[in-house]
Specification:
The chain has a single domain, classed as 3-Layer(aba) Sandwich (Rossmann fold), CATH 3.40.50.850. The chain is built from five helices and eight strands.
Length: 218
């Protein structure tokens, strides 16, 4: 019997897209990109895969917002309790329009919310930077999922962290590059190299995994 597959669609939210003029818009995230992600996710669900989404869900006083640190600007770094923290423009604030997940929410079995603790950033779908686990691992195990397809925003941050944590948690992880976008070319290259070194499988398109996950759209 084949190992069961699941899908993690990472942070396809308004503030990360050019489509919605997001405060932290990732290059290449226009209407066509969002539509492509939604259609791919629909085909995976129709093929019988269990689909999860993730959602940045920051309180307004979050430590990662440059606006909460007088004299600092977005993309500066600070040290907090021995940790280096990158500062971002305020984004995906709880209850705001641009925090919404843009693709059809009915495609997801569940949406995992991250970064709700104002003291810790959270790139990974599995845990925040303080080590507090989300419910994702428990849900994957309940559904007997061992293989994960991961894609979304951004490949150099949340996709990367989620894929590496998936490997460390004992899953097999495949990242779909064509359904992901990166914030910057240099961090994207580093992230791809790191994921490969950690054992993450990198593919350009879903068709490259088709034989493993069964006929898409069936």
């Amino acid at each position: 019997m084949k190992d069961k597959w699941g899908v993690i669609v990472t942070d396809v939210q308004g503030d990360f897209t050019e489509l919605k003029n997001g405060s932290l818009a990732v290059p290449g995230t226009d209407e066509e990109y969002v539509r492509e992600v939604e259609e791919a996710t629909k085909s995976l669900k129709e093929a019988g895969l269990v689909v999860f989404g993730t959602q940045d869900w920051h309180p307004a006083d979050h430590i990662s917002f440059a606006s909460n640190h007088p004299g600092k600007k977005p993309f500066d770094s600070i040290v907090v309790n021995g940790r280096t923290q990158t500062l971002w423009p305020p984004h995906c604030v709880q209850g705001t329009e641009n925090a919404r997940v843009l693709i059809d929410n009915n495609l997801f079995l569940a949406i995992v919310r991250k970064a709700q603790n104002p003291a810790f950033d959270s790139y990974s779908a599995f845990r925040d930077d303080g080590g507090a686990k989300t419910e994702l691992d428990a849900m994957l195990r309940t559904n007997k999922i061992k293989n994960l397809l991961i894609y979304g925003l951004a490949i150099d941050y949340c996709v990367r962290a989620s894929a590496i944590d998936a490997i460390e948690a004992g899953y097999k992880a495949t990242v779909v590059k064509g359904l992901s976008r990166g914030i910057a070319p240099e961090t994207t290259v580093r992230a791809l190299d790191e994921m490969k070194q950690k054992g993450v499988r990198l593919i350009q398109a879903l068709e490259e995994a088709g034989g493993d996950i069964g006929p898409l759209g069936a």
